């Protein structure tokens, strides 16, 4: 199984440790993982804004970078959603279809493809609030959502549950969007920041020490709000916890 | 005006949506219906803000009399109970305005929602359902159906020109979500289960 | 006016459903915060929703109450959902029934017309709001009507009905409490189900004090509601005509159904001798088997109550009465032909998408500056005026909660994305967005340019992603800290620590 690692722009720039943890974690399962160094972005900022034509060249580059892999894995559900469900600016060739259907968010790759049942190296004795990115939750269906009458499930919780010492903190509005929303975070800055502040307040009330998520983008926004508010919360990507980070 | 009719229908035909969209079959969803629907009806009615009057076997109308505690005209649309205001063919809808209590019989009830169905046949004048300050309703327990699917199988829908499900008294929460009964319609609704 | 409080007007307790009362505890601050007003409308210029949203959020008491109240409705909806085993099946059915009816809308409209006419209802057809208003005015004038009582109808909001009637000297009295508050305050409804939900009780007290003479210092909701009841009743009793909307129209029986909690539609329809119902052509459903699917979903989705207190079915005029139905198109038949956007016609106006929308809850419905606010508004409003409402599809994080609470399964968040594409394709996108995305698209398409744009060791601002980088206002940093810049990017780490170990096979492949 040849795996291509996609490290989204946010992670590349601000959270290289998340990329490193993802790479190391995948390698722990004996996978051959490559990171094509000429990768940039999945095209989401343009598509998200409606500028599909402007996204075309970025999408082409993505397919050129990742066409040769059996699976493309990325520590971002939002980017996975873009590739899998919205990469429509370019002609849908076999290569494009292959890349789109083979791109997985890290948690679902571990849960559904590798069917991992233990992380013996992982221990995280802290109280943790889980945040699901909205694309990851409602489009990739990484967990059951409160809007629907369905059997409760959560792939990230199932994986985190295998980590020694972890304790979950419950939010009052666990599925509420944090207000990042991609370009929304700058075009509609006022509402975006208010939603972020409300999310941080909910996390604080839950008694969490850490917030974790499989999406760095939401956490970058939440962490930005938390710092400005002077909130004592730490944000850590799920890849790091699963890879054995202690704190 | 027929010009607009034809224009609208023409535009609809022109903009016909693509694909097959067959008419779905709607189940009755009544597999789980309990044998005795009274308990569920009462629970649903109370959730909607209605009250159940406690029956009195030797004197069936005693609970109705006891429920009338305020002065003011009482209009009765049922033979079992004598009101002090008569509805005649000359009664206008607005004549009901001074009424404090109206005593009515519901055509049937719905256990799922605690709803009572009235048509013009039970109301005599339609406004007896909502212009009075309070309603006291007789309901035959044999005329309670389980859910709304069952309710719409009833014959009343093809007989009446006006039919209303009343589920508890008038309510509003339009000011900061504070529930207030008696926004425009009746302030209270009491039900006596009485064949 | 001193309205005597009836003793029934006490707070609910026990098992009784409380609709929204749980969030009605008095606010901590009793300082009357001025009510923020809605979006500034400047002719046909694009509405600036975020500007109005920022003003709403600046009124912190209003924003906090609004968010809590609507979230409370969302939670009550969830509770009802869990009480119905067949909930998701009902949603599928509701969606399928609406799609079926819309696919044969001409047939069902003619069937309704035939059956309603046979029962004595006079059916009219109006291609737009102006024709609707003219038809109603003609009916009212020919019968000498000077006062009309009406229940809430979003369609008449679309038609500008009240303004039109005011110009033509017909007094229109709204009988829904929330709508009456809005009418007296000369403001549009901010929500399809709870029109005055953006107002604090102190705002209502001040409106009522000015208009119906209530005590300006008494902001008790029971008192205010009672004042309105007492003030409106004489108007109801003296009106010569009543008007309602219609939630559902049953083609096979010629019936239309109106759902209210106050009983005000029944009062409006049954008290005066003349009843006119204005109904959008998309409200049709086939028959009585289908009706319960919608009755079961509507109020549960809207308010979290199993049914509206009054569900009223009109199949013909009462003895000695007169009944008219005006079927209104106003853009609906055209929308039917919009490949991506016709499913918006399935909407039953429950407002669940507004209650769940995190943007709506923090912005207030009037910030959208359009008849329909919130998620459903974002996808319907541009069909009325694409230029004026071109910014609205951006007032969303596209989180998808709306789509999943929608009882008729409208793919709202996908349509929001489709609207953005449509707007950008038609040149209806703001220049700043266009310039930024064009630049971002070019930079991200080239690894060399992209990497060159990420110089390390300078100010953190330089490292923000491109759509932020090109935004000179630095809107990110206004209320959020900018992330710390690490010593090296992942890409640099990989080249340094891993790339050298790899075989050179992939070196030439990625250009």
TrEMBL record, chain A:
It comes from the Bacteria. Residues 3-83, 128-221 form the Cysteine-rich domain. InterPro entries: Cys_rich_dom (IPR004017). This is (Fe-S)-binding protein.
């Amino acid at each position: 199984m040849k795996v291509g690692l996609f490290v989204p722009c946010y992670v590349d720039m601000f959270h290289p440790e998340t990329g490193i943890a993802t790479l190391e974690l995948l390698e722990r399962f004996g996978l051959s993982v490559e990171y094509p160094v000429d990768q940039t972005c999945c095209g989401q900022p343009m598509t998200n804004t409606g500028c599909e034509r402007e996204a075309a060249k970025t999408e082409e580059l993505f397919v050129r970078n990742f066409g040769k892999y059996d699976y493309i894995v990325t520590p971002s559900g939002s980017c996975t959603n873009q590739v899998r469900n919205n990469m429509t600016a370019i002609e849908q060739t076999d290569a494009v279809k292959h890349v789109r259907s083979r791109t997985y968010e890290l948690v679902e790759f571990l849960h559904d493809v590798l069917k991992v049942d233990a992380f013996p190296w992982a221990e995280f004795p802290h109280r943790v609030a889980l945040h699901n990115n909205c694309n990851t939750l409602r489009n990739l269906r990484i967990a059951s959502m409160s809007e629907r009458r369905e059997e409760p499930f959560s792939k990230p919780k199932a994986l985190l549950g295998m980590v020694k010492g972890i304790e979950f903190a419950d939010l009052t509005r666990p599925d509420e969007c944090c207000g990042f929303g991609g370009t929304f975070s700058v075009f509609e800055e006022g509402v975006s920041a208010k939603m972020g502040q409300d999310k941080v307040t909910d996390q604080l009330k839950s008694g969490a020490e850490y917030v974790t998520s499989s999406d760095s983008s939401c956490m970058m926004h939440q962490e930005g709000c938390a710092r400005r508010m002077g909130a004592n919360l730490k944000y850590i990507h799920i890849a790091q916890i699963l890879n054995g980070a202690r704190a | 005006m027929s010009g607009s009719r034809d224009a609208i229908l023409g535009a609809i035909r022109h903009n016909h949506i693509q694909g097959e969209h067959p008419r779905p079959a709607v189940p009755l969803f009544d597999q789980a219906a309990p044998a005795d629907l009274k308990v569920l009806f009462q629970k649903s009615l109370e959730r909607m803000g209605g009250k159940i009057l406690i029956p009195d076997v030797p004197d069936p109308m005693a609970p109705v009399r006891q429920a009338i505690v305020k002065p003011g005209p009482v209009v009765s649309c049922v033979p079992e109970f004598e009101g002090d205001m008569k509805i005649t063919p000359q009664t206008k809808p607005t004549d009901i305005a001074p009424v404090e209590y109206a005593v009515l019989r519901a055509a049937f009830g719905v256990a799922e929602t605690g709803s009572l169905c009235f048509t013009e046949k039970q109301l005599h004048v339609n406004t007896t359902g909502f212009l009075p300050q309070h309603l006291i309703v007789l309901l035959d327990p044999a005329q309670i159906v389980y859910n709304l699917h069952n309710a719409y199988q009833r014959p009343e829908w093809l007989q009446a020109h006006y039919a209303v499900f009343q589920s508890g008294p008038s309510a509003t929460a339009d000011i900061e979500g504070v529930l207030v009964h008696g926004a425009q319609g009746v302030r209270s609704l009491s039900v006596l289960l009485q064949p | 006016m001193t309205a005597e409080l009836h003793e029934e007007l006490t707070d609910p307790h026990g098992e009784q459903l409380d609709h929204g009362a749980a969030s009605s505890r008095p606010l901590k601050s009793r300082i009357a915060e001025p009510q923020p007003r809605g979006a500034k409308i400047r002719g046909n210029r694009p509405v600036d929703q975020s500007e109005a949203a920022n003003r709403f959020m600046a009124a912190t008491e209003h924003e906090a109450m609004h968010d809590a109240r609507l979230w409370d409705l969302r939670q009550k909806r969830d509770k009802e959902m869990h009480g119905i085993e067949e909930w998701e099946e009902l949603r599928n059915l509701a969606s399928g029934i609406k799609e079926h009816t819309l696919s044969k809308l001409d047939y069902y409209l003619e069937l309704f017309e035939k059956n309603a006419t046979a029962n004595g209802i006079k059916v009219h057809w109006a291609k737009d709001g102006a024709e609707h208003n003219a038809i109603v005015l003609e009916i009212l004038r020919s019968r000498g009507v000077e006062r009309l009582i009406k229940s809430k109808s979003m369609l008449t909001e679309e038609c500008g009905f009240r303004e039109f009637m005011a110009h033509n000297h017909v007094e229109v009295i709204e009988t829904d409490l929330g709508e009456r508050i809005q009418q007296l305050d000369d403001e549009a409804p901010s929500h399809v189900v709870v029109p005055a939900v953006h107002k604090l009780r102190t705002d209502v007290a001040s409106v009522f004090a000015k208009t119906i003479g209530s005590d300006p210092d008494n902001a008790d909701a029971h008192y205010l509601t009672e004042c309105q009841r007492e003030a409106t009743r004489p108007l109801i009793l003296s009106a010569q005509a009543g008007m309602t909307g219609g939630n559902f129209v049953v083609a096979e029986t010629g019936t239309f159904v109106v759902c209210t909690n106050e009983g005000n539609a029944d009062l409006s329809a049954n008290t005066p001798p003349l009843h006119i119902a204005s109904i959008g052509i998309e409200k049709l459903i086939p028959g009585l088997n289908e009706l319960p699917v919608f009755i079961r979903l509507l109020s549960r989705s809207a308010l979290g109550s199993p049914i509206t207190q009054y569900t009223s079915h009109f199949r013909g005029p009462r003895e000695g009465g007169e009944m008219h139905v005006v079927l209104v198109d106003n853009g609906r038949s055209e929308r039917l032909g919009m490949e991506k956007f016709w499913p918006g016609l399935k909407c039953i106006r429950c407002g669940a998408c507004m209650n769940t929308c995190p943007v709506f809850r923090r912005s207030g419905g009037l910030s959208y500056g359009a008849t329909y606010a919130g998620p459903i508004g974002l996808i319907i409003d541009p069909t009325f005026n694409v230029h004026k409402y071109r910014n609205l599809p951006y007032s969303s994080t596209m989180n998808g909660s709306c789509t999943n609470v929608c009882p008729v399964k409208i793919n709202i968040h996908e349509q929001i994305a489709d609207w953005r594409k449509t707007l950008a394709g038609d040149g209806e996108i703001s220049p700043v967005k266009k310039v930024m995305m064009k630049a971002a698209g070019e930079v991200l398409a080239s690894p060399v340019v992209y990497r060159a744009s990420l110089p390390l060791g300078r100010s953190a601002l330089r490292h923000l992603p491109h759509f932020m980088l090109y935004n000179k206002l630095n809107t990110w940093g206004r209320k959020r800290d900018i992330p710390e810049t690490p010593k090296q990017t992942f890409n640099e780490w990989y080249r340094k620590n891993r790339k050298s170990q790899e075989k050179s096979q992939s070196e030439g492949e990625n250009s």
